[in-house]
Amino acid sequence: MSLRVVEICAGGGGQALGLEQAGWEHVAVTDNDPDACATLRHNRPDWKVIEGDIRQLDGRQFAGADLLAGGVPCPPFSVASQQLGADDERNLFPQAIRLVGEIMPRAVLLENVRGLAEPKFSSYVQWISDELWKLGYAPSWKLINAYWYGVPQLRPRYVMIAFYRSAMIDFHWKFDYQPSTTAGLAIYDLMKARGWPGAATWAL
Q1: Residue 89's pLDDT is what?
Q2: Where would a tag sit more exposed on the chain, N or C end, judged by fewer CB atoms within 10 A?
């Protein structure tokens, strides 16, 4: 039996692809960006792609899905923005929590920029954890970097995984570090296929 996931704020499908490769079946993917949704539809025409604001999404239609996943907007917590946190209208953590309550999945996976891990947001992170606890989930937070897993990008993310409290005792973060390559080597074949004369040099 496949494990079913609902993914919010999916963008062009980077995390969705990873979940798919891990064996998850997407019940639905959502995003409010038309280009991102067009990308999702083009690459996965069999997926249910919902274009629009998740504030308008009724999670009850997906009740019982195994996982709610997503990378809610980062600007409220990003150092590249004003870090307005909960006061930023783009902050969708409350909506994600609402959807958890409507779907009641077996697990929750949410990620954001490392700015969320800063001390200035510790009380907000605690609020998120408390709200999930009220719904019956035990959350765990960890700052990880995609570079540790062979991705040719320095991409630190603050990741939260939550299970029902009775199941969380069996969860442990696993760090299986893999050597990373450079961006040039990762896309060398693509550049070479286009006949770019500088491809070999750029891949060094």
Answers
A1: 84
A2: N
